[in-house]
Amino acid sequence: MSNQNYHYRNPDFYAGQTDGCTLLVQLGAVTFSYAVISEAGLQALEDNISLAELIEPSEAHQLIFSNYKECIIGLPQNGFTFVLYGLFKPELVTDFARFLDVKSEEKVFSQPLDNHNQVIYKVKESIADIIAEKFDLKNTVFPAKGWINAAAKNKPANNEIFLNIENDKVSLLNFKDGKLRF
């Protein structure tokens, strides 16, 4: 396991300039990473930060709690399912969540994935609670949404399989006739 930590801060950037920026946060089981981007590009980046910094942030991580134009938070899911829009109804989320074997210490989230699918996923309640205290849960996204949409925009052939390797997980992605297959 790697304990490397990457850190970048534009030397001309300071916390008072975040109003026009976007904060991107990706949570893991015990750590998180964040980036601050603006129209001018990447302003700050840090990874492998303890989740404890979200509860009691040190002075070094106060930038995370500045005011931003937009905030996008990827939650660490531990189970998900896709539901075609033709089958999806918000009042049926609980029924679809049964496929995920949701435990009492987990919360279920549902959101559009693309033009054809709704994603329903579960997250540890303790992590969802940490985010709810500091940010708006409306700003959370299914963590794989970014790379799924990036792959879809490249108009993949039916025989192409995409891999995403992150920490101890491997995710596979395939499209058929431009629509998500798995």
Order of helical and strand elements: EEEEHEEHEEHEHEEE
**Going across the major beta sheet, what is the strand order?**
1-4-3-2-5-9
Structural class: alpha+beta
How far is the N terminus from the C terminus?
28 Å
Helix content: 10-25%
Count of DSSP strands? 12
**Unreliable stretches:** none
Evaluate the radius of gyration: 18 Å
Report the principal-axis shape. Answer: globular
| Strand coverage percent | 35-45%
Biggest sheet overview: 6 strands, mixed
- What is the number of helical segments per DSSP (H or I, 4+ residues)? 4
Mean pLDDT: 87
Summary keywords:
single chain; 182 residues; alpha+beta; six-stranded mixed sheet; three-stranded antiparallel sheet; 4 helices; 12 strands; 40% strand; globular
Structure commentary:
The chain is an alpha+beta fold. 15% of the residues lie in helices and 40% in strands. It is built from four helices and twelve strands, in the order ββββαββαββαβαβββ. The strands form three sheets. Strands 1-4-3-2-5-9 form a six-stranded mixed β-sheet. The chain has a three-stranded antiparallel β-sheet with strand order 6-8-7. The chain is globular, with a radius of gyration of 18 Å. The model has no long low-confidence stretch (mean pLDDT 87).
Please sum up the structure shown:
With 182 residues, the chain is an alpha+beta fold.
Secondary structure elements and their pairing?
Elements: E1 7-9, E2 22-27, E3 31-38, E4 41-50, H1 52-55, E5 70-74, E6 77-84, H2 93-97, E7 106-112, E8 117-124, H3 125-134, E9 140-141, H4 145-153, E10 161-166, E11 169-176, E12 179-180
Parallel strand pairs: 2-5, 5-9
Antiparallel strand pairs: 1-4, 2-3, 3-4, 6-8, 7-8, 10-11, 11-12
